[in-house]
């Protein structure tokens, strides 16, 4: 549908600079046909303000809008805005609650895994006293530079000194027939 200029009644094309009335008629007008300065047109377009033709402007003065109508329009817009804001907040809080629930579930899983880990390791060490563990570590340190002899029974003594004495007896049994007498230190 072709639009015609309100002033000169010549067709308004997409390539012709024009402006649309923001009043009741919604008709176009060539910018060159307006009785306003070019800077004002530029300001209207730049600020996204509404231009109202003279006919619509006079019509508005003849039929002023009552305060009650304006209040009703504002109230309707506020209700719409309030509803949109409420919906946006509800969506946001739902997403937050979902994320909190996920984090809480992950914390529970980690706590359960930690409890299982502690219980399994406590059970591993529950048969040993601290003294037994320390004695075993000391014994391993003393034996760290020893020579390994195979097919000799392990000492059943609980004290380190007794284990050393038994091990020396076994070594002496092996080395004495060879004519070698080790120096004990």
UniProtKB/TrEMBL annotation:
Record keywords: Metal-binding, Zinc, Zinc-finger
Domain PHD-type: 2-59
Annotated source species: Zophobas morio
Transmembrane stretches, start-end: none
Top-level lineage group: Eukaryota
Keyword Acetylation among UniProt keywords: no
Protein name stated in the entry: PHD-type domain-containing protein
Stored PROSITE patterns: ZF_PHD_2 (PS50016)
GO molecular function: zinc ion binding
Keyword Zinc-finger included in the entry's annotation: yes
